[in-house]
Write a structure and sequence with these properties.
Blueprint lengths: L23 H56 L7 H43 L20
């Protein structure tokens, strides 16, 4: 290439690191979208919490039923004369009784933990339901997003 035929490149435009500012309407639209999504998630959380409460109640009912049946079974087996039963079967019955006692202790521990969890969840429900209809204007989290002209 000779000196007369040097190609010139186009000058690349500068890239700006600061994004363009949004208009007020775009900000309000985004606020509305976020508030709508927040409300939807809150409702879903309430549904899930209610379902969890139902499941916990059902588990407690099942535990009570199992406890009653195990008590009945334990009473029936203590009335048996195990000396007349095959030693292998007697060992199985005694192992089952020991296992049921351990299972009962585990259930009691789980029931106590579920009660503590229920208390925490009910407190969270009360806090979230205290906000006035989850309106962004009434929510202190959104107060910093308001634009005054």
């Amino acid at each position: 290439m000779s000196g007369n035929q040097i190609r010139r490149r186009r000058i690349q435009p500068k890239l700006h690191s600061i994004p363009a500012s949004k208009s007020a309407s775009a900000i309000y639209i985004q606020m509305h979208q976020l508030a709508t999504e927040r409300e939807r998630l809150h409702q879903e959380l309430v549904r899930i919490s209610d379902r969890q409460d139902q499941i916990i109640k059902r588990l407690q009912e099942l535990d009570q039923g199992l406890n009653q049946l195990e008590t009945t079974a334990a009473n029936n087996t203590t009335d048996l004369d195990l000396s007349q039963v095959d030693p292998a079967v007697a060992a199985l019955i005694e192992a089952k009784l020991n296992q049921s006692a351990q299972t009962q202790a585990d259930r009691n521990h789980r029931a106590n933990n579920s009660k503590a969890t229920n208390n925490k969840q009910s407190q969270a429900k009360k806090r979230s339901s205290n906000k006035a209809n989850n309106d962004p204007k009434n929510d202190p989290d959104y107060s910093s997003m308001t634009i005054e002209y």
